[in-house]
Structure formats: structure tokens, C-alpha cells
Amino acid sequence: MDIDAPDWRSGWPGEATQPDVLARELRTAIMRTSRRLRTEASGDVVSPGQYTVLAQLRRGSRTSRELAERERVQAPSMTRIVKALTAKGLVSRAVHPQDGRQILLSITPDGEGILEEAKGQRTAWLSRRVALLDEEDRLVLSRAAHLLQELSAE
Amino acid sequence: MDIDAPDWRSGWPGEATQPDVLARELRTAIMRTSRRLRTEASGDVVSPGQYTVLAQLRRGSRTSRELAERERVQAPSMTRIVKALTAKGLVSRAVHPQDGRQILLSITPDGEGILEEAKGQRTAWLSRRVALLDEEDRLVLSRAAHLLQELSAE
DNA sequence: TATTGTTATACTCTATAACTATA
DNA sequence: TATAGTTATAGAGTATAACAATA
């Protein structure tokens, strides 16, 4: 619903690309869609946080600290996420060969399987919606996705 | 970071608008940006949930149930949000004149003030980022915002 | 009986502060 | 001392189930 309306879509020409106006509309749209994505995916084996960590580990072993930095969470939060993943057998731990303080985390075969499965499930709702759009609108969303990635990358 | 990469941006022409591929990229971008928006706004007087309820009430009085349905949360969650807002003096309560079970919620002058203030603060980070883009990219994001609104509207 | 709203309780995710073990 | 990781604890947000008051 139009959170910051009643001025939604109204106003003078070019207003939509005014940084403040655009930011407000974009924030509303993103927060709303993200909430929807969260609730639609609630039956999953892994939570959103666990999922992204699993995806990171698919690309190679990482320490807890590296993962925390990439995910922009504090160390204890990552400890919790990793603990949940190891409890499910989706991630394995190994003491770093050179530095005994560090623990190298790796994805397990089970983890790879869950990741593939979750990937489809998590986007099922959005896929259905997106499939109803025409090619032009899908192209807009594709470009927006890349822009948002860059915006929020830091 | 590119959650579902390493295949980010790679692939055959037109792949980006394949519903499944697009949905995956879009989901990643949206979840990441939403987390960033939440953490950047952490110093606010009102939480994201409280903010959107306040915005709803600016457009007229509503009952708790109406608000819960619009926000897609369960009744107890809305009770909690409304309780927080009334405790801060941003929302007032009045028994419905016709139906004694219902309680009409309205935004107070203080609430209107906080809403205006929060509106700017919450989008400040995104505004700064968006301002760095060129007109064409901003137009893409504007159109994407409207598409996302429609997608997640139900 | 059905509906509106609340309370009780629990779960998830996140954070800060304090602790252990290693370098 | 500094760093990697953990534990303890707290706060925000959501949910389900059980309850009260009103229709």
C-alpha cells in the first residue's frame, strides 16, 4: 500500500526522479516487497541470514569474521547463524592450519543441496509475479536490481 | 554482495529477464537494500512498523483490525505497535460511536510532526545514494519502485 | 455465536559487553 | 596487547493460543 501517499504518482513532471521523492518511493516499495518475500518464504529450512551465508560459503571456505564483515553483522550474530548451520549439518568447521584462533567454515554436500533447493523456493513467489510482466518491465527490474546492488554495496 | 553469484551478470543474452533468473537477482538486491535501510535508520524515534502505521493514520482514522490487514500482520502484532505509538503520544484512541468493541485510532499533532521528521531521516541514506546516479538510472529506479508496489500489493 | 481487541508466551534476529584461547 | 570466537543478556518484532468484552 502507498505508505507515503496521498502524493503517490502525482506532482509535476520529473518529480519522480527527484532524489528525495524517488528515495521515498523506492524505500516504501523495497520494504514492502522485502517483508512479502520474508513471509512467503517462511516454510524454508534455512532463514534468510543462513541462506546468504550458505551462498557465500559455496564460493569457498571463510572464517566467521570474514562472513560477518561481508554480511554486515556483528561477530556474535554470525556465531549464531553458523551454529545453526553446523547443527543442521550444512556447514563444517576446521581449525585454521596456520592460526589456531581461526576456524575455517565450509559448506557440506548437504549444504549445497539445501542451497539449490532453497534458491528455487525462496524466489518462487517472486518468479510467478515477475513472469506476468512484459519484457520491457522485466528489463526495468533487471536494471534496477543491478543498481540496487551497487547502491547498497557500500 | 552477489549472493547468488558467481553467475551474476554472466550468461546468454536475454537471460536477465528470464523470470527465475530475474527473480533471484531481484530478491537478493531487495533483501540487501532493505537490511541496509533498516540499519541506517536505527536512530529513529519510530520503528519501521510504527512508521508505516503512522503514515496510514495520517490519511484518516482506522481500527486496529483495519491496520493489521493493511500491514499484513496479525492482530496482536498491531496491538503492540499501536501501544508503542500511544505511549509516545503519537496516536490517540477513541471508542467507536456505533460499535463498542472497536477502537478508532487517530494520529495526533505530535504524530504528524514525527512523521514528517522521520520521513526525511529514513530516506536520507537512500537519497544521498540516489542523488549520485544519472537521470536515466533514476528513471529506471522510479519505474521499478512502481512495479514493485504493484507486484507486492497482492 | 461471531467479532474486536488484549494478554500470555515463545521464537527469531540482532546488538553490546564480558570472557576464553591463541598470536 | 591484540585478535578470533564465544557466551550472557537484552531488545525489537512477529506469531499462535487463550481470554475478555461487545454485537
Overview of this structure, please?
2 copies of one chain form a homodimer. By secondary structure, chain A is mainly alpha-helical. Chain A has a single domain (17-154), classed as Winged helix-like DNA-binding domain superfamily/Winged helix DNA-binding domain (Arc Repressor Mutant, subunit A, Orthogonal Bundle). The first copy, chain A, is 61% helix and 8% strand. The first copy, chain A, has 6 helices and 3 strands; from the N terminus they run H-H-E-H-H-E-E-H-H. Chain A has helices at 19-40, 48-58, 64-71, 75-87, 109-131, 135-151, and strands spanning 62-63, 91-95, 103-107. In chain A, strands 1-3-2 form a 3-stranded antiparallel beta sheet. In chain A, strand 2 and strand 3 (103-107) form a beta hairpin. In chain A, helix 2 (48-58) crosses helix 4 (75-87), helix 2 (48-58) crosses helix 5 (109-131) and helix 3 (64-71) crosses helix 4. Chain A is elongated. The two termini of chain A are 29 Å apart. The interface between A and B is large, with 64 and 64 residues.
Question: Main traits of this protein?
Answer:
DNA-binding, mainly alpha, 154 residues, 61% helix, disordered N terminus, Arc Repressor Mutant, subunit A, 8% strand, elongated
What's the arrangement of secondary structure elements?
Two copies of one chain form a homodimer.
Chain A: H1 19-40, H2 48-58, E1 62-63, H3 64-71, H4 75-87, E2 91-95, E3 103-107, H5 109-131, H6 135-151
Helix pairs in contact in A: 2-4, 2-5, 3-4
The first copy, chain A, binds a DNA duplex (23 and 23 nucleotides) through residues 47-49, 63-65, 73-81, 83, 96, 99-103.
